[in-house]
Inverse folding.
C-alpha cells in the first residue's frame, strides 16, 4: 500500500513534469480550504498540496486538520506560489488518520515553549525544532560509527548490567529481582544478594570502560557506543540519569595520542553534520539566534552556531595543565571580584563555573586540561612521577563545560593494585581487570564522550533533555 510513496524531501528536489506521485504525511496547516502543508519528517520543509476549489466534498475538507495523516495522489507541478519550486495538484486525498483539532496539543496558534514540548515528548518530533534535532542526532550516531570504522576500531558491546563500579562512586541503579518488601537477609541484617538473580549485587553500568580495556588488549583499538546510567541527583541542564556515551580504548596510546584522537574525532563529527545536515543546522542556528535575543547583551554568545562550529573545526584546542588552569583562575578578574561561588585552589574538582570561565572568557575556544590531582580522579588513571597528579585529560567546550573525560590508564600492576587498596576498591573482585596487567600489559588510553553533551554543542540546544528522545532525570521517566 505504501511502497509507491515518495518522501517529501525527495519530491522537493524533483523536476516537476506533471508526473503522478503518491505522498503521505501529516498536515502542518491547511489554508483557505485549498493549500495543505504536508510534512513526513524527511525534512522540515513541507510539500504544498493544492486541492482545487469544489473538487472535494466539504465533509472530507473538514477532516484535513493539523496533525491529520493523509495519503495524496496527484500531479507534481511547478509551483505558482512563492517559497517552493514544486507542489502537488491533488487528484485524490485519503484520510489515513483523523486528528481532533480540539484535542491536538500542537496547534500552531501559539508557539509552544520547549518546557511544554518536554511534557508532550511523544508528539514533539513533529515540530521543526525537534525534527532538526533528531535528524542531526541520527546523523551524528552514524558519523561516530563511520569515524571508528574508517580507522579500523572494533565496535565492542559492553554489558549494561554489571557487578563492578567503574568509578568507585555510589551513583548506580541497582538491578535486582529480590522482593522489595521482604528481601532475604544475612545474620547481620544486611540484604543477602547471593539469593538475587545473579547471585550477587548488580547495577546498571556507569561506563563501559573497564570491559573496553579488555577488548583493547586484544584488538588494539575498540570503541563502545551505548547507554550508561547514573543515579546522580543532579537536576542540571547537562546531566541525565540515562545518557549515551562513546568510549574508545586504545592500546599503544599515551596521553598525547589520546588527546589527538579526541580532538580529531570531535572535528570529524562537526564536519560531518555541517556537510550532511546543513538545512537543519541553519534552522537550529536561527532558533538559537532568536533565543539569544531574549538574553541581556552581556550573556549573548559572540558567535552564531555555524560560525562557532566552523571555528572549532579550524582551530586547534588549547592544551593546558590543571596547575596552569588553577593559576589562570586565581589571577582572573572573576576570582578577584569574588564572582565564583565555589572555592578555587590547587586540589579542587573544578566546578562548571570554573570550566566555563576558562573556555568562554579566557581562551574563547575548547580547552584540554591535563594532569589532574590524583585524589579527585579514578583509580585506573596512570600516576605521574610527581606523585600527586595523574595522566588525565578533560575536554571543555564553550557553553557546556566538560564534554570528554579520559586518561592514560595505569598499566603497571603494582602501582594499580596499590592505588586500588588506597581507595578501598575490592582487588579480589577485579581479578579479571587486573589480569590484563599480568598478561602482556601495554601502555593504553581512552576517553568517554558524552553523546548528548556533543549534541548540545552541535545543535545549540541548551537543555540536555531536549536532545534525547525520552529523557530520564530525577522524578522524570514519562513515556
Ligand atoms: P560531570 O563532571 O559533568 O558530571 P563526569 O566527570 O561525571 O562529568 P565522566 O565520568 O568523565 O563525567 O563521563 C564522561 C563523559 O560523559 C563526560 O565528559 C560527559 O560528556 C558525559 N556525562 C557524564 N555524566 C553525564 C550525565 N549525567 N548526563 C549526560 N552526560 C554525562
Ligand atoms: Mn558527574
Amino acid at each position: 500500500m505504501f511502497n509507491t510513496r515518495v518522501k517529501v524531501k525527495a519530491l522537493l528536489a524533483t523536476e516537476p513534469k506533471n508526473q503522478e506521485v503518491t505522498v503521505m504525511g501529516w498536515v502542518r496547516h491547511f489554508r483557505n480550504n485549498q493549500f495543505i502543508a504536508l510534512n513526513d519528517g524527511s525534512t522540515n520543509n513541507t510539500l504544498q498540496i493544492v486541492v482545487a476549489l469544489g473538487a472535494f466534498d466539504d465533509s472530507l475538507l473538514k477532516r484535513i486538520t493539523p496533525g491529520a495523516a493523509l495519503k495524496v495522489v496527484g500531479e507534481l507541478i511547478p509551483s505558482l506560489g512563492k517559497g517552493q519550486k514544486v507542489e502537488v495538484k491533488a487528484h485524490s486525498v485519503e484520510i489515513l488518520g483523523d486528528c481532533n483539532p480540539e484535542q491536538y496539543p500542537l496547534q500552531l496558534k501559539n508557539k509552544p515553549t520547549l518546557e511544554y514540548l518536554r511534557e508532550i515528548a511523544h508528539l514533539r518530533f513533529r515540530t521543526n525544532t525537534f525534527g532538526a534535532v533528531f535528524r542531526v542526532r541520527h546523523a551524528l550516531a552514524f558519523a561516530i560509527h563511520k569515524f571508528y570504522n574508517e580507522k579500523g576500531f572494533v565496535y565492542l558491546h559492553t554489558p549494561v548490567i554489571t557487578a563492578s563500579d567503574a568509578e568507585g562512586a555510589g551513583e548506580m541503579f541497582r538491578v535486582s529481582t529480590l522482593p522489595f518488601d521482604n528481601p532475604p537477609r544475612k545474620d547481620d541484617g544486611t540484604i543477602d544478594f547471593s539469593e538475587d538473580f545473579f547471585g550477587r549485587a548488580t547495577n546498571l553500568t556507569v561506563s563501559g570502560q573497564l570491559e573496553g580495556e579488555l577488548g583493547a588488549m586484544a584488538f588494539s583499538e575498540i570503541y563502545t557506543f551505548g547507554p550508561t546510567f547514573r543515579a546522580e541527583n543532579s537536576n542540571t541542564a547537562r546531566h541525565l540519569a540515562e545518557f549515551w556515551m562513546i568510549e574508545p580504548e586504545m592500546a599503544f596510546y599515551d596521553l598525547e595520542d589520546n588527546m589527538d584522537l579526541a580532538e580529531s574525532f570531535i572535528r570529524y563529527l562537526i564536519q560531518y553534520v555541517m556537510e550532511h545536515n546543513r538545512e537543519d543546522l541553519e534552522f537550529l542556528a536561527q532558533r538559537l539566534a532568536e533565543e539569544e535575543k531574549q538574553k541581556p547583551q552581556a550573556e549573548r554568545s559572540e558567535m552564531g552556531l555555524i560560525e562557532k562550529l566552523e571555528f572549532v573545526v579550524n582551530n586547534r584546542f588549547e592544551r593546558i595543565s590543571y596547575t596552569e588552569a588553577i593559576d589562570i583562575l586565581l589571577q582572573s578578574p572573576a576570582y578577584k571580584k569574588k564572582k565564583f561561588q565555589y572555592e578555587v585552589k590547587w586540589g579542587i574538582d573544578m566546578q562548571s563555573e570554573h570550566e566555563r570561565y576558562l573556555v568562554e572568557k579566557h581562551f574563547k575556544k575548547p580547552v584540554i586540561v591535563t594532569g589532574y590531582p590524583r585524589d579527585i580522579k579514578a583509580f585506573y588513571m596512570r600516576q605521574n612521577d610527581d606523585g600527586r597528579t595523574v595522566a588525565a585529560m578533560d575536554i571543555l567546550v564553550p557553553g557546556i563545560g566538560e564534554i570528554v573525560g579520559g586518561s592514560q590508564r595505569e598499566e603497571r600492576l603494582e602501582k594499580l593494585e596499590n592505588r586500588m587498596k588506597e581507595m578501598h576498591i575490592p582487588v579480589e573482585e577485579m581479578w579479571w581487570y587486573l589480569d590484563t596487567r599480568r598478561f602482556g600489559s601495554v601502555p593504553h588510553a581512552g576517553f568517554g564522550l558524552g553523546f548528548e553533551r556533543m549534541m548540545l554543542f552541535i545543535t545549540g540546544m541548551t537543555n540536555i533533555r531536549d536532545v534525547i528522545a525520552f529523557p530520564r532525570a530525577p522524578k522524570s521517566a514519562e513515556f
